[in-house]
Design goal:
There is one protein chain. By secondary structure, the protein is of the alpha+beta class. About 40% of the residues lie in helices and about 15% in strands. The chain has 3 domains: about 30 residues, no CATH class; about 50 residues; about 45 residues, no CATH class. Strand 2 and strand 3 form a beta hairpin.
């Protein structure tokens, strides 16, 4: 992108303004004849030496699951010094791949018959002496939503709205 903008006649300063990159970096990149990609970094993870052992243990226990705390205690004896959360994350991905388990929906919807229930939510719009509130009432009967601004934060005020 830097080379193409420069070929179109833009100055280094205008390229810096357009891209948001420092002009010294742009000068440096323009001196390069071809774009050099960044080197792929590889990190040694704490769990890597133990993945083969964990894989073997989890395969042995199939179709049952081994708790991550058990695996954690076992590999600590072999010198693992990481946290249990790393093991939990690895094992959940492993079970998703090997047991074809899908994550369950975390929200279970509760529906009632039309006209039976209304939902009221509120929040403070601004702070100060008089607190206006935003009230949203979701009527199941009409499948519609309306908003009302209300000034008092009292139960009887909310009872009048809903």
């Amino acid at each position: 992108m830097i080379h193409s903008l420069y070929a179109q006649g833009h100055s280094i300063r205008s390229i810096a303004r357009i891209t948001g990159i420092n002009r010294r970096t742009i000068s440096k990149r323009l001196k390069e004849k071809e774009m050099k990609p960044y080197k792929q970094r590889s990190y040694n993870r704490k769990l890597d030496p133990y993945k083969e052992y964990i894989d073997k243990r989890l395969n042995q226990a199939l179709p049952h699951k081994i708790p991550s705390s058990v695996i954690y205690e076992e590999i600590r004896e072999y010198g693992y010094d990481g946290k249990i959360r790393i093991i939990q994350s690895f094992m959940s991905k492993w079970y998703e791949q090997h047991l074809n388990t899908k994550k369950q929906e975390s929200i279970i919807r509760f529906e009632t018959e039309p006209g039976f229930q209304a939902q009221v939510d509120w929040t403070v719009i601004r702070s100060g002496k008089n607190l206006p509130l935003w009230i949203c009432n979701d009527f199941k009967l009409f499948k519609s939503t309306f908003y009302i601004f209300y000034q008092f934060y009292e139960t009887r005020s909310l009872a009048r709205v809903s």
